[in-house]
Amino acid sequence: MPLLLLVSLLWAFSFGLIKHLTAGFDGAFISAARLGLALLVFLPFLRLRGIAPRTAFALAGIGALQFGLMYLAYNESFRFLKSHEVAVFTLTTPIFVTLLADAFDRTLRGPALGAAVLAVLGGAAIVVRSAPTAGTFTGVVLIQLSNLAFALGQVLYRRLRATRPELRDRDVFALVYLGAFALTLPVSLARTDFAALLLTPPNLAILFYLGLIASGLGFFLWNIGATRVPAGTLAVMNNAKIPLAVAVSLLVFGETADLTRLAIGGVVLGFAVWLAERRPPQRSSL
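User: That's the sequence. What structure does it adopt?
Assistant: Structure tokens below.
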């Protein structure tokens, strides 16, 4: 779980930083730039020897889904939703993680599902202040598509790694980013007016942080951490970035927040982590 906490902190900074970019640049360009930089980070570590073509294509497909489609839908949702509304509607990600994991396993784990629901409630206690308007429907659909893509990618990566334990994450992760970049680049080329594109040094600094740190290092560590925790804990940690993002906004970006909501949400999230990791008591043999 420490890896998931570290990545959640990295992503908490991303909320404040990406807000400065989405107002001036197309979402597809931001997606392709982030993922292209992340791909450059892991290309030197790529080791294709011993990897079957089917496995390589599966990794690229997971990346196209988990990161490529997720980012395209996520950034597009900012055209229809305010930033705090985007944060609110990402709360369904852990529900998707738990339900998808159960669907693949053909089972229904009550504690894991309960932990996911508690995670949603804990995040909602922090960020939900008013009901969304009817005009946000398109944005809601886009962000739910983003959440579903990210959740399904996590579950699929966990399952693939479970069947191929000999693979090392750093050796193959460039394939994941390659799939994501291959999906976002054509969309960016079709939509971005590169002749009018003006990137200032602050813009470049933010893009490098988002691409190299938040996306490159962050998603790599997240998928490693996802293989080391139960599905219920993974579902809960998908929302850990929300209270962390509030704390970063208070301490770094000088924003204000309801401290009571923050405290209540933190307690609920903490209980959800405990519930997700709790094991049923073992019966002693007679």
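The chain has a mean pLDDT of 81.
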